[in-house]
Amino acid sequence: MMEIVTLAHGAGGRLTERLIENLFKKYLNNEYLQQGDDGAVLSLPGTKVVFSTDSFVVNPLFFPGGDIGKLAVYGTVNDLAVMGAEPLFLSLGLILEEGLELSELEKIIQSIAQAAEKAGVKIVTGDTKVVEKGKGDKIYINTAGLGIINTPNNPSGKKARPGDKILVNGYLGDHGAAILAVRENIPGDFTSDCAPLNELVKSIIHEYPVHAMRDPSRGGLAATLNEIAKQSNVGIELWEEKVPIRPQVKTLCGYLGLDVYALANEGKVIMIVPPEIAEKALEKIKAHPLGKDAAIIGEVKEAPAGLVYVKNRIGGERIINMPLGENLPRIC
Amino acid sequence: MKVAKKIVVSGLVQGIGFRPFIWRIARKWEIKGWVKNSLAGVEILAEGEEENVNKFLAAIKKEKPPLAVIEKISVIPLNLSGNFETFEIIESQRDRKGVLIVPADLPVCGDCLQELRDSSDRRYQYPFINCTNCGPRYTIIEKLPYDRPHTSMKIFPLCPECAKEYRNPEDRRFHAEPVACPACGPRLFLYDKEKNLLAKDGEVIHKTQELLKKGFIVALKGLGGYHLAADPFNVKTVLLLRQRKHREAKPFALMVKNLTVAKKHVYISKAEEKLLTSNVCPIVLCRKKKSSKIVKEVSPDNDYLGIMLPYTPFHYLLLEHFEALIMTSANLSEEPIVYQDDEVFLKLKDIADFFVVNNRPILRPVDDSVAMVYKKSPVILRRARGLAPLPLKVRGMKEGILALGGQLKNSFAITKDNYVYLSQYFGDLDNLPSRLAYMKGIDDFCRFFEFTPQIVAYDLHPGYFSSELVEEKYSKLKKCPIQHHKAHLAAVVAEKRIKAPFMGVIFDGTGYGEDGMIWGGEFFVAFTPEDYQRIAHLKYFPLLDGDEAIKKPWKSALSLLNEVQVDVANLIFQDIERMELEFAQKRLAKQKIFTSSVGRLFDGISALLGLKTTISYEGQAAILLETIADRSERGCYDFTILQEKIPYEIDFRPLLLDVLADLKKGVNKKVISGKFHNTIVEMIAGLGKIVNKQYGIQKVILAGGVFQNRVLLEKTFISLKRLGLKPIIPSYIPINDQGIALGQAYLANKLCEE
Ligand SMILES: [Fe+3]
Ligand SMILES: [Mg+2]
Ligand SMILES: [Zn+2]
Ligand SMILES: [Zn+2]
Prior knowledge:
Chain A is built from 9 helices and 13 strands. By secondary structure, chain A is of the alpha+beta class.
C-alpha cells in the first residue's frame, strides 16, 4: 500500500516521532540534531554572523537538475554566500499537505541531505506541520541559515562604482527555463543550474575586493541589477553578445514572449568588481567547476543613474525594467 | 482729446514681425510711446488722439502679420503722461507670468527664397537665410522671452550690415533673432566618416549633390536634427539604407523639389496641397501614382508615399538638382532623432557615408511632423516640427497638471491657465536614449514655461514607464491615473471642444483596462464631458505572451481560431515553426489575460490571410490588410451584439467563421479584406444606432490608432452619416497614442477638482 502523509504525521504523536526517526534523523543526522532539544546550541567561530531565511514553493517539486529540497538548501546557502559569509548551519521547516506520498517526501529529504553535505552545512533544527488536503501544494519548505564572515571584504549593493565590471559565473536563465519547460510541457534540453555557490564565492572573496555580489534568483538578472543600480545610484550597461545564455533558453523565451534577463537562476552569482582586477577574478572563477562559462557581461556607469540597459551589436540600447511579474502587452 | 492706453496683446505674437508691424501702424496714426515683448506677449504703451488710438487698436486686429495669432487684446486706460515724443521698440524685460506662446520653427519664406536666388543679393545661395517671417524658432530658443541672446544664435555676433537690418524697424529683418549672412552667420561643412573636412560653405551643396547622385547615404543637419538623405530612384541605395538602418519595410519619407514635381509621383488634392505648403510643412501621406519611378522599396507595404517640401534654404539649394530625396530621421530604430554634432559621427558611423554639418547648435531635437488629409481636413499622425509646442486652448484648464502620456508613441503635456502645451514626439520609452530624451523634455518644459507640477496624470498601465516615474519622481504630487481609452476620447473632446452628450468609439492596439483586462475595442457614452460609461466592447479573447503577440500577429490569429474551435492553424501558418505553434495552442487554454482589442483583430485577420505573420514594424499587418482591401466591395460578414448586460459585447465569432469559409472557398483576399473592413464599420454603425435610439446621442467621436486606417475611416464616416449621426475625429492632435497626454490632462483637470 502506498504510504502518504496524514494529518497525524503533524500532530506531534507517534507518527510524528516515526517521521523524525525514520526520515529526518536517518538522512540529516549530526551531533546537533542528536541533542534532540527544542533548539540547537551552536558554537560559532568568528565575530560577524550572517542570518538569512527563505521559503520555497515550487511547482513541479522535481525538475531536471533539481528539486524543492535542493533548492531549499542552496537557496539559503547562496544567500549567505553572496553576503560574503561561510554558511554553517541551517534550520528546516516543512509544511506538508495531507496526502503527500511518503516516498516522495523521502526523496526530498534525501536530496536535502545530499545538498547539505555538498554545501558543507548542517541542518541543526527543524519543524514539521501538516495541513489539510487542498490547503497546501504538497510541500512547502522554509530554511534559515547561519554563516560567519571571516574576510575583511564585505560586498554590498551600495558599493558598485562607475567603471566596475560585472561578472557572472555562467549561463543565465537555466533554472527559470527548466521550470517553465516542465510546466508548459515543452521538450528540450533544459536543466536547472541549482548549485551551492559558497565554495566558488569563497575562492574569490578572500582574494579580491568584490564591491557588490548577489545571486540573481527570483526576477533574475533584471531584478538583481535594477536593485543594485538603484542602491548604488549608478547606471548598469550590459553587452548583449557577452551575456551567456543558451540558445535553447533564448528560443524558449522567444516562444513565450518572456524577457530572458528576468528568468530565475539558482546557481549563479553576479560579482561587481573594480576594473583592474576583473580579468584576474574572471580567470579564478573560470577555474572553479561552477564557473567554467563565466564572463564579464557589462560595466557600471555613472549615468543614467538607477537604470539598467543592454547594448546590442549595432549600438541600440534597450532598458531592462524591473520585472512586473505579469506579462502585460504595452504596444498600443 | 489725447488719451493714454496700455495694450497687451497675447497669443502667437513673438518672433514673427509683430513689433515692427506695431511700430509701422503707430507711426501711421501718430501714436507715441513704445512696444516691447513680454512674457504675456507684446505690450504697448500708446498715447495719442482718442480717435487715432481707436484706429490703431482696430488696425492691430485687422492688419496683423500673416503668422500672428491673437488670443486676446486687453486695453487698460492710463493717465496721460505726455512724456513721449516718439514711438520706440524697446528691449524686452522679464515681468509677470502670462500665457507663453513659443513660436514653432518656420519654413523659409518667399522673400528670403527670392534673395537666395538673386545673384546680386549679399545672401545669394546662403543656406541660413531667414527673416522675421521665417526660420528656426523652437529648436534654437534657450529661454523666453524670445530674443537673440536667448537663442543658440548668440554665438554669432552680427556684422555691421546685419546689425543695421536687425535694428531698423522698417527692415524685414528688424529683430529677426536668427538673422545671419555669409559674413557673420553659421557655416556649412562636409565631412567623411573619419571626420576629414572635404568642403566648406558654398562648395558643400555641390559636392553633396554629387555624392547623393553616386548613391551614397549622407547625413544632413536640418532644423530639428539630422536626416539621412539618399536617392529614391536608386534601388541599390534604398536597399543599402534599409540594411544599414536595420529597417526592413517601414516606409521612408521623401523630400520633393516642389509641388509640380510631387504631382508626377503622387496624387495631391487641394487640401493636401494646402497642408504641404503650410507653415508646418509636414510629411503628408499621399497616394502613389503608378507611373512614378520612385522605387517601390521606399514604401513597400502601402499605396502611400510620405512626402514633404523643402523647408530650409539649405534644402532648397540641395534639391535644385533632384526631383526627390529620401529624408528619413537620422537615428537607430526607435531612438530619438540625432541632433548634436559630436553625437552624429558616433551614432551614424555605420549608416551614413558622409556628413553635412553646420555650426548653428540645435538646442531641442524635433522630428518632422506627419499628417494625412481626410475629408479635406488634416489628421496629424505625428506632432512635432511646426506644431510643438504651440498650445491648445482648453477653457477651464487649471495650472499645474503634468500629463505623462503613453509608452510607445509618446508625448507629454503641461497645463497653464486655459492652455495645454503638448510636447513633441518621443519614441519607445524602453529605448534608453528615448527615455532620457523624454525625461529631459519634461525638465525642459518645466524650466521653459516656468512650470511646477502639482497634479500628475498618467496611464493606468502598471508596466508603463510613466507608472514607475510617478512612484519615483512624482510621488508627492496629487496622482490622477487615467484609463488609456478614456484619455484617447478626452483628447478629442478637449481639442474639438465637444459638448456632451456624445459617444466615443476607441479602436486601438492595447491599453490597460479598469478591469485588469487589455482593452482596445471600446464604446463609451458620455452625458458630461468627463464621465465616460463603457457601453460596449469587442468580446474578450485570450492574448498570448504579452508584447510578443503583437510582434507575431499569428498568435492573435491563433487566439481567434481557438474562440471558434477551429483547428486549421497548421494548414494556414506554414511559415511558423511547428513546435512554437503547438506550444502556443496548448497555452491558450491557460491564458489569464484577455483582450477586447480591435487592433489585434486586424492583426489576426491579416495573419489568417497570410499577409503578415510576424511584423517588422508597428502596425505592419494591419497596414497590409488595409492596402489590399477592395474599396468597392459592398459585402459584409456577420456579427452579433450581445445586449444582456452593460457593457454590451460585440461577438466577432460569426465574422471569423465567415472569413474562414471564404478562405476555404478561395475568395480573393482583396474581397475578404474589403468585407472585413465593412464588418468593422457595421459594428460601429450598429452600436451607433443602438446608442442613438436609447440616449438620443448623435455625435460619434472616433479615435485610437486603428483609425489611422483610411479605408476604415472613410467607410465609417459614410455609414454614420447615412444614419444621421455625426462622426468626429481630431485634427491637430494625433489620433494615436501621442494624443493621450492631452486627454489625461483634460480628465485630470475635471476629476481632480477637489
Ligand atoms: Fe492607444
Ligand atoms: Mg532569502
Ligand atoms: Zn524670410
Ligand atoms: Zn551678417
